[in-house]
């Protein structure tokens, strides 16, 4: 990765963090759907990003959101989890297509493959986040609805941002 690309990806992650912290932190649809756009910073990094850097970036972004949301490491855990699982999903998709190199993004992959890449990771992130937050099993249905609605909202916002980006 060149210096120019590294700066572009750093600015992209910072932009997603600023959007999350200042605008989307308080956006809740119907008391169920939350939008966690900051995970797009981890999801849209190049496929050949080193695993250690992925984990560090995932921790830094999740910890930053935790500091501003007062959530005591829940976002850091969920983001590190998807940063850890991301290379396995990328490798699986590369093997299924028979490709040696894979570019991530809606323009490079197409809508179907892009959704097949981001939806499982968003689902894992949101499930980990909301299941940690759940304090008793009487809230399981409410929590599952929150997971589903938030996955849908976050996916739609990431796809829209990806469609309108210049990359």
Structure description:
- This protein has one domain (3-163).
- The protein has 7 helices and 2 strands; from the N terminus they run H-E-E-H-H-H-H-H-H.
- It has helices spanning 3-22, 40-43, 51-69, 74-97, 106-109, 111-133, 140-163; strands spanning 28-29, 33-34.
- A hairpin with a 3-residue loop joins strand 1 and strand 2 (33-34).
- The radius of gyration is 16 Å and the shape is globular.
- The model has no long low-confidence stretch (mean pLDDT 90).
Write the layout of secondary structure elements.
Layout: H1 3-22, E1 28-29, E2 33-34, H2 40-43, H3 51-69, H4 74-97, H5 106-109, H6 111-133, H7 140-163
Antiparallel strand pairs: 1-2
In short:
By secondary structure, the chain is mainly alpha-helical. It is built from seven helices and two strands.
Helix content: over 70%
The H/E string reads: HEEHHHHHH
Tell me the radius of gyration: 16 Å
Number of helices: 7
Global shape: globular
Question: Which features would summarize this protein structure in a list?
Answer:
167 residues, mainly alpha
């Amino acid at each position: 990765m060149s210096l120019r690309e590294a700066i572009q990806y750093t600015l992209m992650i910072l932009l997603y963090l600023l959007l999350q912290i200042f605008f989307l932190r308080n956006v809740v649809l119907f008391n169920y759907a939350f939008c966690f756009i900051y995970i797009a910073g981890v999801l849209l990094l190049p496929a050949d990003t080193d695993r250690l850097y992925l984990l560090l970036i995932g921790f830094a972004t999740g910890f930053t959101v935790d500091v501003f949301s007062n959530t005591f490491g829940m976002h850091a855990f969920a983001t590190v989890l998807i940063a850890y699982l991301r290379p396995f999903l990328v490798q699986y998709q590369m093997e299924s297509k028979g490709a040696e190199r894979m570019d991530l993004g809606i323009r490079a992959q197409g809508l179907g493959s892009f959704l097949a890449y981001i939806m499982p990771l968003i689902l894992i992130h949101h499930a980990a986040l909301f299941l940690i937050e759940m304090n008793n099993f009487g809230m399981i249905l409410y929590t599952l609805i929150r997971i589903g609605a938030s996955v849908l909202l976050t996916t739609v916002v990431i796809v829209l941002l990806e469609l309108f980006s210049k990359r």
